[in-house]
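Consider this record:
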Amino acid sequence: MNNPIISWRNSSKKYQFLNKVGYIVSFTKIHTATTDFSRNVPYYVGVIDFGKNIKTIGQIVNENRKDIKIGQKVIGIIRLGKKVEPSEVVEYLVKFKTQ
């Protein structure tokens, strides 16, 4: 069960890349995942560079089904995190959409 207090305390760090534009430095395609992320398989995870020595790791959302490439531009967007039970708090995450 996720804790709403911990989620709220971490929200300022979690959403710092929302609407920020960055570039893919490295990525991999995940074919097998834990039960929390099994509905998303296959999916991409990559290292995103925002310049000024600021980098993060995150899921790359590729709605156009184009090939993902190193150097490709991405933007931080909000997406639903893992599937939760009715009694749990819904948590949203920043993922990176290809441009």
User: Anything to note?
Assistant: The beta strands are 21-30, 43-49, 55-61, 73-80, 92-98. The mean pLDDT is 84. DSSP finds two helices and five strands in the chain. The radius of gyration is 14 Å.
